[in-house]
């Protein structure tokens, strides 16, 4: 750590969540105003909603006091959860690091509480408890421990399970997972699921979404992507599977996974193109053709229906992201993490547009 390190840094990553930060950022600083011990690291992850201007106009006094440091990167085209957090954690200059989502309220005295806990406990990290909801991603960890496990796994690129994976690796390091339980630390802004995924790659790259209903606990999803690829997935709702069948087909699943929507083993990928008003799906040597305006079409012995409801499309992408990441975490328990580095990129500090910081 650099000279003048603080005791705890709250690391906020933000892409187009200005309306949340307008409600939470100053409140969190005021509720934990310890300039000699606390810093708030805000990483503007290439927002286009006026975040930079708002910080300049409203938060300069906190930057001047040293409790707020504003960084901006103009490189990302979409929100990359694991990478953005790694960047912010690397930039922080404190012995304790805490991820803080833009929609979270810390609660008065959270910083003092965590500093005291780490002063009296060795080999620990902290998170919310199972009732945390939108607080679940708030993890507090010593920087040396975070760096030892090489941060969040940047192979986890969608929504969900990046924090679960982090917890697993911290525990493998020999740390005890503890929880903070004060209800004053559990307030957040409630919002639609659209905000969770709208700036992530899958949502931004999806041209059309189709769904096929196989049985009461199985659906197939087909995503036609803007890069002219398509992906077909099977989602299995284990809760409904147990209700209808009485057991899960995968006996290697944990008790928690048997309550989740999981990914089937038959995912497929291919390419598509448009010819006049026809859509052609190409997979290996097989093609499927249907009209662009068709609301349904046959594909691989199933009828697929176009999803026109925005809320349903968002829910599908959210569930897919969860299932894909859960499957990845299950299959990569012994895989080396971030072997080529993590949190790389170029940022600018406190509006210094002519002086770049390169994280290698």
User: What is the CATH class of the largest domain?
Assistant: Alpha Beta
Shape: globular
Number of beta strands: 20
The helix count comes to: 11
How many whole angstroms does the radius of gyration measure? 22 Å
Protein described:
With 360 residues, this protein is α+β, with helices and mostly antiparallel strands. The chain has 2 domains: 6-191, Spore Coat Polysaccharide Biosynthesis Protein SpsA, Chain A, CATH 3.90.550.10; 195-331, no CATH class. Helix content is 29%, strand content 31%. The protein has 11 helices and 20 strands. The protein has helices at 18-31, 51-58, 60-65, 81-91, 110-120, 143-148, 162-172, 194-197, 201-205, 238-244, 310-331, and strands spanning 6-14, 38-45, 68-73, 94-99, 104-105, 124-127, 140-142, 176-179, 187-188, 206-215, 218-225, 229-237, 261-263, 268-275, 278-283, 286-291, 296-299, 302-306, 345-349, 356-359. The strands form 4 sheets. Strands 10, 11, 12, 13, 14, 15, 16, 17 and 18 form a 9-stranded antiparallel β-sheet that branches. A 7-stranded mixed β-sheet has the order 7-4-1-2-3-19-20, sandwiched between helices. A two-stranded antiparallel ribbon has the order 5-9. The model has no long low-confidence stretch (mean pLDDT 93).
């Amino acid at each position: 750590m650099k000279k003048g390190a603080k005791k705890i840094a709250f690391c906020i990553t933000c892409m187009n969540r200005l309306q949340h930060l307008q409600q939470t950022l100053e409140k969190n600083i005021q509720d934990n105003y310890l300039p000699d011990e606390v810093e708030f690291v805000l990483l503007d992850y290439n927002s286009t909603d006026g975040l930079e201007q708002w910080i300049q106009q409203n938060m300069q006094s906190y930057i001047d006091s040293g409790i707020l440091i504003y960084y901006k990167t103009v490189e990302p085209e979409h929100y990359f959860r694991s990478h953005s957090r790694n960047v912010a954690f690397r930039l922080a200059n404190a012995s304790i690091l805490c991820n803080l989502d833009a929609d979270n309220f810390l609660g008065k005295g959270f910083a003092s509480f965590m500093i005291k806990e780490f002063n009296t406990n060795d080999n620990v990290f902290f998170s919310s408890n199972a009732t945390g909801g939108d607080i679940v991603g708030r993890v507090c960890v010593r920087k040396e421990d975070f760096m030892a496990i090489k941060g969040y796994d940047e192979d986890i690129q969608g929504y969900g399970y990046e924090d679960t994976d982090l917890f697993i690796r911290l525990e493998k390091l020999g740390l005890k997972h503890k929880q903070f339980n004060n209800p004053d630390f559990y307030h957040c802004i409630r919002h639609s699921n659209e905000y969770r995924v709208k700036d992530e790659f899958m949502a931004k790259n999806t041209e059309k979404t189709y769904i096929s209903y196989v049985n009461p606990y199985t659906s197939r999803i087909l995503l036609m992507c803007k890069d002219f690829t398509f992906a077909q997935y099977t989602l299995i709702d284990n809760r409904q599977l147990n209700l209808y069948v009485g057991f899960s087909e995968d006996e290697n699943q944990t008790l928690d996974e048997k309550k989740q929507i999981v990914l089937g083993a038959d995912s497929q990928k291919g390419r598509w193109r448009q010819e006049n008003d026809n859509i052609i799906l190409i997979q290996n040597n097989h093609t499927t053709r249907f009209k662009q305006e068709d609301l349904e079409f046959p594909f691989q012995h199933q009828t697929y229906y176009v999803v026109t409801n925005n809320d349903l499309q968002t829910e599908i992408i959210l569930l897919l992201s969860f299932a894909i990441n859960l499957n990845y975490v299950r299959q990569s328990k012994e895989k080396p993490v971030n072997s080529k580095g993590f949190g790389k990129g170029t940022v600018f500090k406190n509006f210094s547009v002519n002086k770049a910081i390169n994280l290698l």
